[in-house]
Every structure is written in structure tokens, then in C-alpha cells.
Structure to design on (316 residues):
């Protein structure tokens, strides 16, 4: 990722009346490692729920895909725990697969490549490092059916118009026979959701603060991490959980790459992330608005989470 783009985005966010930082910058190598720790937390039900879906419904998903040879492209591959389970089940069923994991973190790509080669040695893998918004467009279409994986509730990080825009971009780069499998976190007990995003060990706090540390490392910032804290809250009416960094005092921060000093008031918020939860009808509506049809929704045993198979709507 370009340092210039990073600096420009940081300047735009910290110059806004209501300051914000894009969550896409969470995932440098250290951020990716911290997120792996989050996924292992007892409070963070999402990973276990989606893994349960692949343990129990992979063959159902494959039957809905209806193909024996597949290119599988994964956007934001991460550590690959859930995906490897899905791929294992598909390989057992005799599916011929070429797997294209995409991640912005070289550390994450190195890890998943190593895991795949160790656990699924017969799987063809072509790893790609970069921002999937750009890298995905560069993958040439082929006569082989493609299934794009967008797992882990990442679609919930986008406001509704941006989520539709992202899915439309994917649709534009897919053929009529290709499909999209999207992981979506479902509305449920507000207490359960709130706990998942503010753990007792403070790893989610460290994950957010690492964004400031990254600015220091890569852009020459002088954030004092001891003078910022983390806060999140869940609104069950709209299904949105929002995360913030909080300035604990009046302070100035200089960022060399931006050649600018930013002022923070005591208790001023920096918005870092949205994590939207959906109900089943909202999933159908999301697909329709983006030019897809929701073929099926697959749930974990507790119905905390859904992996939803979308196919492109073609107009004759």
C-alpha cells in the first residue's frame, strides 16, 4: 500500500470536524497478529460460529454452487482457519480447486500459504499480497467457475451505501456463472455482541491503539499511546457497533509524512470502525440492491452467524 495514500487518508480523517481513521489500516503485520488473538478470545463468538458453519454445511454450500472445478478467491484471507476447513471438505468431495488468497499483510499471506501447504498439500494455491479492492480487479476471468469468499463479517465494516458499492464492484468483475459467499454477523443479544468488541483482556483496545503505533512507525507520528483509550458501543435498533479511540487530554500530535500538527481536545473521539449486524431480510435486501440474488443462507448451530451464497442477477 502506498505510503502517500496512507498519509493522505490519515490527514483527511484527522482534519475532519469529527475525526476518524479508516479501519482498513488496522491490518499491518502487527495488527493482523493482534486480530488473530482477538479471534481466539472466548468473547469473540464470530470465528467459532463461522467455523461451525463450514464444519456442518460445506457440502450443502458445494451442492448449491453446483460445480466440480472451481477457482476460489478469498478477499482478506487472514489466518485461514475457517477457509482451510471449507477447502478440506470440498477437496474430500472431489472438487478440483485453485485457491487465490488475497491479503494486505505479507505476514498473513505467508502464514496461510504455509498452513495450506502443510494441511492441504494437494491444493493448488496462488497467494496475492495487496489491497483486495485493487488486486481482485487484476485477476483475469477464466472459463472455470469462480467463487469469491468474503468471510468473517467484513461486509459489516461498511455503511449500507458503501457495502452495496463494494458488492457491485465484485459483481462487475464476475461472470454470470460465478458466485459470492459472504460472511454476515446476525442480530442477537446486545450484551453478547457488545462483549465481543470490548474484551476483558484489552486485546481489542491494543488492536485499535496499534493503528496509532502504525502511524508513528510508518508516517513519523508522535502519538503517545498512553494518552489515548478505546471505547465501543452497540445500538440494537440499527444493528451497528461503533468503535472509537478517545483522547485523554488536550494534546497535539505531529505527523511528519503529513507535515502537519493535529489538535485533540480532552475526551475527543476518533471513530475507527463500524461493525453492522443484519437480520435475515436485510441480507436478502443487501444482495438485491447490489445486483445479486441470495441463493441460500447457512447458519451455525446457535444462529449467531450466516454464510450467504449470492449469484449474479443477469438481465436477458
Amino acid at each position: 500500500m502506498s505510503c502517500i495514500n496512507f498519509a493522505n487518508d490519515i490527514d483527511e480523517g484527522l482534519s475532519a470536524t469529527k475525526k476518524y481513521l479508516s479501519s482498513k489500516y488496522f491490518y499491518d503485520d502487527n495488527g493482523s497478529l493482534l486480530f488473530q488473538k482477538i479471534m481466539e478470545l472466548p468473547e469473540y463468538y464470530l470465528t467459532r460460529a463461522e467455523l461451525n458453519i463450514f464444519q456442518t454445511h460445506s457440502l450443502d454450500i458445494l451442492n448449491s454452487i453446483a460445480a466440480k472445478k472451481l477457482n476460489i478467491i478469498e478477499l482478506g484471507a487472514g489466518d485461514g482457519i475457517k477457509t482451510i476447513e471449507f477447502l478440506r471438505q470440498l477437496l474430500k468431495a472431489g472438487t478440483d480447486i485453485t485457491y487465490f488468497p488475497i491479503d494486505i499483510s505479507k505476514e498473513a499471506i505467508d502464514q496461510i500459504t504455509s498452513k495450506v501447504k502443510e494441511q492441504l498439500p494437494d491444493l493448488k494455491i496462488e497467494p496475492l499480497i495487496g489491497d483486495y479492492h485493487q488486486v481482485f480487479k487484476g485477476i483475469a476471468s477464466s472459463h472455470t467457475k469462480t467463487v469469491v469468499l468474503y468471510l468473517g463479517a467484513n461486509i459489516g465494516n461498511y455503511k449500507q451505501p458503501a457495502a452495496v458499492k463494494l458488492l457491485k464492484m465484485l459483481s462487475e468483475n464476475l461472470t454470470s456463472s460465478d458466485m459470492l459467499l459472504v460472511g454476515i454477523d446476525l442480530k442477537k443479544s446486545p450484551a453478547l455482541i457488545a462483549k465481543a468488541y470490548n474484551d476483558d483482556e484489552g486485546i481489542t483496545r491494543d488492536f485499535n491503539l496499534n493503528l496509532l503505533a502504525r502511524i508513528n512507525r510508518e508516517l513519523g507520528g508522535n502519538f503517545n499511546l498512553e494518552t489515548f483509550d478505546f471505547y465501543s458501543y452497540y445500538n440494537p435498533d440499527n444493528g451497528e457497533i461503533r468503535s472509537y479511540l478517545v483522547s485523554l487530554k488536550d494534546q497535539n500530535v505531529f505527523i511528519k509524512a503529513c507535515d502537519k500538527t493535529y489538535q485533540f481536545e480532552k475526551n475527543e473521539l476518533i471513530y475507527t470502525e463500524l461493525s453492522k449486524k443484519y437480520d435475515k431480510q436485510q441480507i436478502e435486501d443487501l444482495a438485491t440492491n447490489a445486483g445479486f440474488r441470495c441463493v441460500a443462507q447457512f447458519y451455525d448451530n446457535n444462529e449467531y452467524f450466516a454464510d450467504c451464497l449470492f449469484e449474479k442477477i443477469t438481465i436477458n
The chain is about 40% helix and 25% strand. The radius of gyration is 20 Å.
